């Protein structure tokens, strides 16, 4: 979403700060963190897209509290004929931003809610992963050049104690864990994947994703709930996880 059609490094501020949103103040990109992310696959996405594909965006929710402002956007990936292939919802938390100065929420659309994660039983699957010290440097190649993930001084100023990993990098680890455990490592098995980012991960931290089967999902999928724990801090890094997966049993060979 940040890279667009560019083949080179882009300027992060220019990507996310293209003017003010009516009724809201100008938001500081250095004090903006990823809050939630979800993706719904509507049709198989071709490896070669051709010309005319677009990512259509609209703001679907705004909320304000004493800590800042949360913006939620809906992105729809369409081909040259306008046929939708995927729908993404993403929200950003803008630390310290003030609009009305009062607590409020306005919403016109959003990601589907998941079933509660069971508290009375152990997870059905547990997957462990290890990030690397250069993880944030590598993930920048996706097109997200937010200085928060490369410049320690920006991380210090934002209250994170230095560089933190991109939320979507942690998101990728969690998605791979769910797909490995439930979907037989088949990318086409994953139909929906949504999370809330609850605490930061630093490059080099170890992760543990706990997954519960919570019932049937739409269109013959299985719904799972999950959390990803940062084993270095002991805190939940990803919470409110929900995925719809075509369940594929692992081969016993």
From TrEMBL:
Cross-referenced Gene3D superfamilies: Hotdog Thioesterase
Pfam families per record: MaoC_dehydratas (PF01575)
GO terms for biological process, alphabetical: fatty acid beta-oxidation
GO terms for MF: (3S)-3-hydroxyacyl-CoA dehydrogenase (NAD+) activity; 17-beta-hydroxysteroid dehydrogenase (NAD+) activity; enoyl-CoA hydratase activity
Matching CDD domains: HDE_HSD (cd03448)
MaoC-like domain mapped to chain residues: 119-228
InterPro entries reported in the protein's UniProt record: HotDog_dom_sf, MaoC-like_dom
GO cellular component terms attached to this protein's record: peroxisome
Superkingdom as given in the UniProt entry: Eukaryota
Protein name: MaoC-like domain-containing protein
Organism: Cerrena zonata
Biological classification of the source: Eukaryota, Fungi, Dikarya, Basidiomycota, Agaricomycotina
């Amino acid at each position: 979403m940040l890279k667009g059609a560019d083949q080179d490094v882009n300027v992060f501020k220019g990507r996310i700060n293209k003017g003010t949103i009516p009724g809201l103040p100008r938001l500081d990109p250095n004090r903006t963190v990823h809050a939630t992310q979800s993706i719904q696959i509507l049709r198989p996405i071709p490896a070669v897209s051709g010309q005319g594909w677009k990512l259509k965006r609209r703001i679907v929710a705004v909320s304000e509290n004493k800590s800042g402002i949360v913006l939620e956007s809906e992105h729809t990936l369409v081909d040259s004929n306008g046929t939708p292939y995927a729908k993404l919802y993403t929200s950003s938390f803008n630390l310290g931003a003030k609009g009305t100065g009062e607590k409020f929420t306005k919403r016109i659309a959003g990601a589907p809610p998941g079933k509660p994660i069971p508290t009375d039983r152990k997870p059905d699957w547990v997957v462990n992963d290890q990030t690397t010290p250069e993880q944030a440097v590598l993930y920048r190649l996706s097109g997200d050049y937010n200085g928060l993930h490369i410049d320690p001084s920006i991380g210090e100023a934002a209250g994170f104690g230095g560089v933190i990993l991109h939320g979507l990098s942690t998101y990728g680890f969690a998605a791979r864990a769910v797909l490995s455990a439930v979907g037989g490592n088949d990318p086409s098995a994953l139909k929906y994947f949504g999370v809330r980012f609850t605490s930061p991960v630093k490059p080099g931290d170890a992760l543990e994703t706990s997954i519960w089967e919570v019932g049937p999902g739409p269109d013959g999928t299985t719904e799972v709930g999950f959390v990803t724990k940062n084993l270095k801090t002991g805190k939940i890094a990803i919470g409110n996880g929900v995925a719809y997966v075509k369940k594929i049993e692992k081969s016993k060979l």
